Amino acid sequence: MIEKLRIDLMGKKYWWFAFSGLIIVVGMISLATRGLNLSIDFKGGSRLTTRFSQNTDVGRVRGVVGSAGYPDAVVQTVSGGRYQVTLPALQENQQQALVKALDARFHVTETSWDVVGPTFGRQVADAMLKAVFLAWAIIIIYVSFRFEFKSAVATLVALIHDLLVTVGVYSIVGREVTTATVAAVLTILGYSLYDTIIVFDRIRENAPKARRGAYADMVNNSIWEVMTRSIITSLLTLMPVIALLVFGGQTLKDFAFALLVGISSGAYSSIFVAAPLLTLWKEREKRYRPPVARAKKAQAKTKAKVKAAKAR
Amino acid sequence: MTDRQKHLLVLGIMVVLLAASVFIIYPPAKKTKLGLDLQGGLEVVLQAQGNVTSDQMDQAELVIRNRVDKLGISEPAISTQGNNEISVALPGVKNADQATALIGKTALLQFMRVDQDLSGQVASGTLAPGKIPADKLLLFQTEKDKDGNVVTKNGQPVKIPMVVDKTPLLTGDALSGASLGYDQYNRPKVNMNFNDAGAKKFADVTEQLATQGAITGQVQQMAIVLDGDVQSAPTVKNKISGGQAEITGNMSLQEVKDTVLVLQTGALPVTLKTINKQEVSATLGADSLRQGLIAGAIGMAVVMIFLVFYYRLLGVVADLALMIYGVLFYAALTNPWHPATLTLPGIAGMILTVGVAADANVVIFERIKEEVRKGKTIRSAVNSGYSKGFKTILDANVVTIITALIIFSLATAGVKGFALTLIIGVVISMFTAVVATRAMLGLLANLRLFNSPALMGLKLKKAEAS
Q1: Domains and CATH numbers, chain B
Q2: What is the CATH number of the domain that holds A61?
Q3: Which residue of A59, A239, B384, B451 has the smallest Cβ count within 10 Å?
Q4: Best CA proximity match to B37, nearest among B317, B453, B413
Q5: Are A116 and A41 in contact, with CB atoms under 8 Å apart?
C-alpha cells in the first residue's frame, strides 16, 4: 500500500536538504530572537501549584500574587482546576506568606511547591549537557564499529539535524524546556537512530549488488524495502505518545511533546538526511561514481591533456 | 528436542513466569511503591555551606535521620549526594512546612552572658549597631504575646536588641536530653538536662554570674540562643546545680515541641541551605496517577487494535505478547527484593516501552511478510523472519539502553525513573516480543489453518503467490 507511493528519493535529495535547512534556519532565527523557554529546573525559581475552594480566575489570582510583592509572577491554569504560579526562588517564610495571602482571598485547599535554587539549576543543566555529549560519543563509536566510518558521520549529521530541529521547534512554539524534556529528547534520539541503523543495514546488504554508478538506485530500493516498517514502527510509537499528550497531566504532556518532536524528526532524518548524505559521499568513490560524472571527469582529463599537449 | 517440544517448553516457562508475576503483583494497590509525585510528599535537597568534611556530612545525615524518625514519618529516604548535599525524601508527609523547617535547622544552642549596659545603649539608640566592640555580638529576641504569637508593629515583628559576649558560656554539646514541660501558669516550656560534664560547667558558669552580680550590684542575665535567635534571657541570682535548665517564655506548644525535637537530636555540624524542594499535595499526586493510568491504557489499547487490524492473526499473537509484557514488566517493578518506585516520568517511560515492544514485532512481521512474498512457505518465512529480524532489534535496543544508562547515571532523581523503566521495559520486551511470539507462531505454523497469507494481513497477487 505504501509501496505505491514509490518515488525517487535520492534524485530529490536537494529538495530534502532544502526543506530541512528551511526548518533549521527558521528555528535558529527564533532561537536567536526569542530564545528558549527554560523552566525553573535550569534557571532556578519557585513554582506553586494550588487549588482554591472559591471560584476565581487568572486575573484575580495574579492580582493577589502581585500585591503580595511578585508583580512579575506568571499565573496559569493547569488541569484539575488548579492554578500554577511561577516565581523567583523563594525562602520558606516567603512561600508561607504567599500561601497565606492567597488563602485569605480564595481559600487554599491544596498546595504543591517546586523550588529550585539557582546553583542547583546550573548543576542540573551541566549534568544534562554532559549526558547529551556522552550519549552521542558512545552512539557514534557504536555505529562506526558496526558500520563504516562514513555511515557514522552521516548518522552524526542526522543526529545534529534532529537536535537543531527539536531546539528550533521548542523555540518557535515557546514550550517550556524541563529536565524531563531533555531526557525524553535524548532517549528518543538514541531510539530514532535505530531507524537510521535499519536503513543502513539494508544498504550494506544491498551494496554488493549495486551496479557501477547506480549507488543512488540501490539506496532508493533499500529505503523502499524498509519504508513500511519505518512508517509503522514510528506510528506505533507515536500512538501511545499521543495518548499521553491528550490525556496526561502537565509533566506527562511535557514528556509526550518532546517524544513527538524527537520521533518525527528522527524518522524523517534517517530517510531524508542520513541516506542521501551517505549516497552523496559514496558516489565520490570511484566504484560508485555515476556515469555522467565519470564521463565529465574523463572529458576534463582529456581536455587537460590536450591543453598540456598544446602548451608543449 | 523437536521444535514443537522447544516451543511448548518456552510457553510453559512463560506460563510459570506469568503465574509468579501475578503472585508478586497481587494486590497491586498495596505492592506498588509510588513516588512522591504520585502519592504526595516532600523532597528537599540541602547543601552544606562552606568547606565540609565527609565526617561532618555523615554526622549531619545522622542528625537529620534522627529528626525525621522523631517526626514519625514512615519510609523516609535520606542520602548524601556528591560531597556536600543531602537529599531527604518524605513520602506522604502531612505537615510539609514543619518538616522543612525542622530538617534543615542547624539547632546550635548557646548560653551567652548578656552585656546589659551595651544592650541598654543599643535599645536607647546611643550606641549604633555598627559600633559594637569586636568581642561582643548583637542578637535579637522576638517579642511574643502570651499565646506565642509574634507581636508586630506596623506589620514588622518587634525585636528586642541584646548585646552578648561573643564567646559562649556553654553550648548544646553539654546537653544529654530535652523534654516538654509546663510552668506554674500551665504554659509549655522546654526542659533541658545536662550531661555530667555539662552539669558541672553549668554550675560553675552560673556561680560566676551570681558572684559577679553580687559584686557589681547588677543581677546578671544569661541569654539562651538557638541559631542566633535569643529564646529567653533569664536572670541568674544563684548557682544552679542539679544539671537542669529550662527555656520559658511565651512559646506556642508547637514551638516548644519543635525546639525539644531539635535539641534532642543535637545540632547539625554544618549549616545547611535548601537548594531544591519539591512538595506535592496528595490530591495532585492522585490526579497525576489517574491521568497517567488512563493515558497508558488508551495508548496500549490503540496499539493493540492497530496490530490486529494490520497484521490479523500475527497481530493477535503480538497483542498476547504485549499483555504478557505488561504483566512481567509490572512484576519486575514491584518485585519484593528491590522494588522500583513508580514516578510520573517512570509512567512516561513505561508507556514509551509499549511502543518499543510493539516495534520489535513489526520488524519481525515485516521480515516474515517479505519472505512470504519471495515465495517461501509460511513456516520457513517465520524462521528466517525471526533470525534476520532479531539482529536488527538487538542493535536498536542496545542503542536505547546505552542512552538510558547514561541518563540514569547523570540525571536528577525524577528523570532517573524514566531511564530505569525504559531499561527494564526494553529488556523484558526483547524477551516477550521475540521469544514468546516465536514459540506461539512456531506452534501455530503447524496448523493447516495458519497457512494462509491473508491471515497475516498479506494480499498476494496471483503471480507473486505462485
Answers
A1: 3-37+281-465 (1.20.1640.10), 41-279 (3.30.1360.200)
A2: 3.30.70.3400
A3: A59
A4: B413
A5: yes
Is A241 within 8 Å of B284 when comparing Cβ atoms?
A: no
Same structural domain for residues A56 and A191? no
**Cα atoms in the 13 Å half-sphere on the side-chain side of A240:** 26
pTM summary value: 0.78
Residue A65, CA distances (Å) to A104, A204, A236, B114 in order: 12, 62, 44, 42
In three-state secondary structure terms, B334 is coil
- Grid cell, residue B69, equals 524518625
User: With an 8 Å Cβ cutoff, are A239 and B395 in contact?
Assistant: no
Nearest-CA neighbor of A288 among A223, A208, A199?
A: A208
The answer to whether residue A303 is domain-embedded is no
Same domain, A81 and A228: no
Examine the domain organization and report whether A159 and A107 are in the same domain: no
Range 14-73 of A in CB contact (< 8 A) with B = 41, 49, 51
Which chain B residues are within 8 Å of A194, Cβ to Cβ? 395-396, 399-400
Asked if A128 and A140 sit in the same domain, the reply is: yes
Looking at the structure, tell me whether residues A132 and A248 fall in a common domain.
yes
Shared domain for A157 and A232, answered yes or no, is: yes
Pick from B279, B288, B352: CB nearest A240: B352
Q: Which domain, by its residues, includes A112? A: 45-116
Cβ within 8 Å, pair A92-B396: no
Q: Which has the closest alpha carbon to B84: B272, B268, B276, B227?
A: B272
Of B451, B429, B265, B461, nearest in space to B363 by CA:
B429
Query: Please, which residues 268-297 of chain A have a Cβ atom closer than 8 Å to chain B?
Result: none
Residues B406, A135: C-beta atoms closer than 8 Å: yes
Per-residue pLDDT of chain B (466 residues; tens, 9 = 90+): 788 888 899 999 999 999 999 888 888 777 788 888 888 899 999 999 888 898 889 988 988 988 888 888 878 889 888 888 999 988 888 788 888 888 888 888 899 999 888 888 888 888 888 888 888 989 988 888 777 777 888 777 888 889 999 999 988 888 888 899 998 888 888 999 999 999 999 999 999 999 998 898 888 999 989 888 888 888 888 888 888 888 887 788 888 888 888 888 888 888 888 888 889 998 999 998 999 899 989 999 999 999 999 988 889 999 999 999 999 999 998 888 888 888 888 888 888 888 888 888 888 888 888 888 888 888 888 888 898 888 878 877 887 888 888 888 877 666 787 888 888 998 999 889 888 998 988 888 777 666 677 777 776 554 444 3
Do A207 and A141 have their domain in common?
yes
Q: Tell me if chain A has a CB within 8 Å of the CB of B298.
A: yes
ipTM: 0.80
Nearest-Cα distance to chain A for B303, in Å, is 6
∠ CA B294-B297-B301 to the nearest 5 degrees?
140
